[in-house]
Design goal:
The chain has 15 helices and 14 strands. The chain is α/β, with parallel strands linked by helices and about 400 residues long.
């Protein structure tokens, strides 16, 4: 998944046999830059005007592009910008979470056109399969045949090593052991004609920001996402970097230190799970965290107490990361109200600036743009990126 600032450096090829790659390049540029006339696309891709016209005409005929209103200038013929068609293709995105699962149907421009969600004490392969299949069947019943035929894939965003986190979410490890041998991508994919993809949930959230988000991401960027646990994503050279095992940016196990005692893992300090445990200790309902991520009916003092723990720990994790790669920008997002997220972002930024950091360049810290939609949209972006984008 390649970011806008780097797309201009990729050039197309006029050789026969590379049409598909050139089509993906055109679609990528329009996704990142917005509507453009053919002449401008030819300039940005390095393709000839004739080749560009052929490609864009084919993409329009196939339903991926549509014409905008004419733009009239003072000299010459008016130009006609082209843009992505929302109905070009559709993608299912399944997010598997520790406390909730969600499936969305996203169109070609990243709008969610259908959605299903369920909360649970913990996920199992069986309940996840059951939820996904029923949700897809229900959504299919609401679609016409033309739209269903344009389903281009199913992406799954799930935490890796789910069976290892049972005790952390208050579950008997035996209840989660079935995840160790479960191939969710294969088992779910065998029920559908379209391809299925799997990615780490936090990396997928980072990918969603790259593909669908509005936050400006630099060519090297660190991404943090607050779910039940905290996770991360890494952008290198404008691309999502997932590493040799697909687990790059897994900041949750990172040891963090404070004045309270020995080192703890970041997930034990900076996570929505920590807020849940606070509510449980106080005898308050914890389900409010997962049922409505846009609005929490939680007393402000409880949230402030939680923030006082997570902000220093998150800043410590960022400092650890920038000591290895000098990320100029950090994006923080999460499944929580925007007002709470803003406090985390400002708190981490202020903490980084206040602490002595000799030899380190302190990054800019910004809020993500997708919130609770990041992980399911990130799942949906997996088939989109594979089939219709360059820079993977």
């Amino acid at each position: 998944m390649q970011r806008q600032s780097d797309i201009s450096e990729i050039k197309g090829a006029n050789q026969v046999g590379l049409r598909q790659q050139n089509e993906k390049l055109v679609l990528t540029i329009l996704r990142r830059q917005g509507p453009l006339p053919k002449a401008e696309i030819a300039r940005r891709t390095g393709l000839s005007a004739q080749t560009t016209s052929v490609i864009m005409r084919a993409l329009e005929q196939d339903g991926f592009l549509e014409k905008c209103e004419k733009v009239r200038g003072k000299i010459g013929q008016p130009s006609i910008p082209m843009r992505l068609s929302s109905q070009g293709a559709y993608f299912f995105g399944l997010k598997v979470g520790r406390r909730s699962s969600e499936i969305v149907l996203a169109n070609f421009v990243g709008e969610i056109v259908a959605q299903r969600q369920r909360t649970h004490k913990y996920p199992t392969p069986h309940t996840t399969m059951e939820f996904a299949q029923k949700s897809i069947a229900d959504i299919r019943d609401e679609m016409d045949q033309v739209a269903w035929a344009r389903i281009a894939g199913l992406g799954i965003a799930a935490p890796y090593f789910l069976w290892e986190w049972a005790e952390s979410i208050g579950v008997d490890p035996a209840e989660m052991e079935s995840w160790r041998t479960c191939d969710l991508k294969k088992e779910l994919g065998q029920h559908y004609d379209f391809p299925t993809f799997l990615g780490n949930d936090a990396s997928c959230a980072c990918g969603a920001e790259l593909v669908f988000g509005t936050s400006e991401m630099t060519s090297e960027c660190l991404y943090l996402y607050f779910g039940y646990f905290i996770g991360g994503g890494v952008v290198i050279n404008g691309k999502l970097f997932t590493g040799s095992f697909g687990n790059a940016g897994a900041l949750g196990p990172l040891p963090v230190y404070d004045a309270s005692g020995p080192a703890r893992q970041l997930v034990d300090v900076a996570s929505l799970g920590g807020l849940e445990r606070r509510l449980v200790r106080l005898g308050l309902p914890a389900g409010v965290i997962w049922e409505n991520a846009d609005h929490w009916n939680i007393h402000a003092d409880i949230i402030e107490d939680w923030l006082n723990d997570i902000i220093p720990a998150t800043a410590y994790a960022v400092k650890s990361a920038i000591s290895i790669i000098d990320f100029p920008r950090v994006i923080i997002d999460g499944s929580m109200p925007r007002s709470v997220l803003d406090k985390i972002v400002s708190g981490v930024s202020e903490t980084l600036k206040a602490e002595v950091s000799s030899g380190l360049i302190i990054p800019d810290v910004h809020v993500g743009s997708l919130g609770r939609k990041a992980r399911p949209l990130g799942a949906a972006s997996l088939p989109l990126a594979q089939r219709y984008l360059v820079g993977i």
